[in-house]
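Researcher: Structure prediction, please.
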Amino acid sequence: MPVVIPRRRLAAALAGAVVAVVPASVALTAVAGAPASALPLPAVAPAAPAAVAAAPLTVSQAIAGQTGQSATVRGYVVGQPTATSTVVTSGFPNDYALAVADSASETSTSRMLYVQIPSAFRSAWGLRTNPSLMGRQIDVTGALSAYFSHPGMTGTTAFAFSSESGTTPPPTTTTSTGTPTSTTGPYDSTYYASAVGKSGSALRTSLHGIIRTQTVLTYDQVWTALKDTDQDPNNTNNVVEIYSGRSIAKSDNGGGVDQWNREHVWAKSHGDFGTTNGPGTDVHHLRPEDVTVNSDRGNLDFDNGGGAVAQCTGCLRDADSFQPRDAVKGDVARMIFYMAVRYEGDDAWPDLEPNESVNNGTAPYIGKLSVLKQWNLQDPPDAFEKRRNQVIYDTWQHNRNPFVDHPEWVTSIWGS
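Model: Predicted structure follows.
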């Protein structure tokens, strides 16, 4: 028996079909002779709500979320970090970093986020140049990852005063030329006068000419020098071992288990210069280290990753590389870069150079360059490293490590 569809229901079905296939932007016409006014109008979808930017994280949230992900954090500028647990509130040494907190009066470093300031932002957001930033609320955007071995933000891409500050911010974006803006230092008009203002190979050549003038020590003199250069600031009877961080009596040096000996950060076999006077006795890269840890490092290149190293918390090693603890990664990198510029093969010593290899053997190379550049940015010079550079200059070799005074020169010479 045929199905009979009432006329009213058929008209409704036809109208629905038209609505389903005709876009809302197309004018409807009459169907089956029905007037257009009789047709139901198509439903109009509501406009999508405007995208709402995520609210900035608080500092406490950023500290708890050190995942390496990018985020914007809002906090008050409370000082400049100079070490893992040290933040200065005046006499700012440079423009490389700032600390933010949820309260402008915060004094506990455990409730502060350490923010790296890339070179392009230093003139506008560094505390040495802009001490009036203290106490201001700002928004910073970057990767939530450790800085100075402390909860922090690295690779920062934007700075701005918060909307609540009521202050017109400096520019928050910039075009980088690949050469960081040079900071100023107390030796720029004297020791580094011929290098300031240069970049790339011209800077390297100038620095080599400056730092190659030095007093050359004997290997026996290195023992005495290290007791001075690496003295524990909290116990003048001790030295601090470079990799392990252990404070040990100055007198407990030698080759026995648990004693400290002389570690060549640029492994002396990389170029086969040994311990004879010259690169083998240059205290800019010789450091106290536990005998066992020194042996574990051996002549390995530097890279990230590996298994734990006994008696060296935070150190890792594998078959072809060694990773020091976070607090001295920058120190290691800057010692390597010093050696590369100091020893250019024009004074009877090998031409030393960092490269991307971790299997350099006895060749005059050491790696891994990309990692060393990152360590230089990750761990800027602290008070211990700066004092060490000064003591070597004043008392022992009378030359300086330029990358401690100007870590941005690493990028100028080797790129970002």
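Model: The longest helix spans residues 7-21.
Researcher: Thanks, that helps.
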